[in-house]
Specification:
The protein contains four helices and no strands. The protein is elongated and about 55 Å long. The mean pLDDT is about 95. By secondary structure, it is mainly α. The protein has one domain.
């Protein structure tokens, strides 16, 4: 299970770099400034949470619990929902700006991931 999360983090990290390069080299001349900022926010949060996923997966060895596993799952869900919705939103902005309504679901997933990471560490008896 641990190896699967680490492999997922590696692939998502690679995707984040590719999408960041795509934004700075291709999209910068094709999107409105606000749409480009939305896209770049998606890339930034994707990469932040790749590192969170790596940390949670590695910490699972020291703090094995369902909380730690769910932390990994929520980080992945947050990346897909939060960053993914921002990528889609930036491409269809402003015509379909209502799509931003699902972005908070991804943000909530990130919050739950961090909370479960804390709980997984805190709950372990010394």
């Amino acid at each position: 299970m641990l190896k699967g999360y680490l492999k997922t983090a590696a692939i998502l990290g690679m995707l984040g770099v590719i999408l960041g390069a795509f934004a700075s080299h291709i999209l910068k001349d094709r999107l409105e400034e606000k749409a480009l900022i939305i896209f770049e926010t998606g890339v930034r949060y994707l990469l932040y949470h790749v590192f969170a996923l790596i940390a949670a997966a590695i910490l699972y060895k020291e703090f094995p619990s369902k909380s730690m596993l769910w932390s990994c799952r929520f980080f992945i869900a947050g990346i897909v929902i939060f960053s993914g919705s921002l990528f889609v939103l930036s491409m269809v902005y402003p015509a379909f700006s209502f799509l931003g309504a699902i972005t908070p679901i991804g943000g909530t997933s990130f919050i739950l991931g961090w909370g479960l990471l804390f709980f997984g560490i805190y709950a372990r008896k010394s």
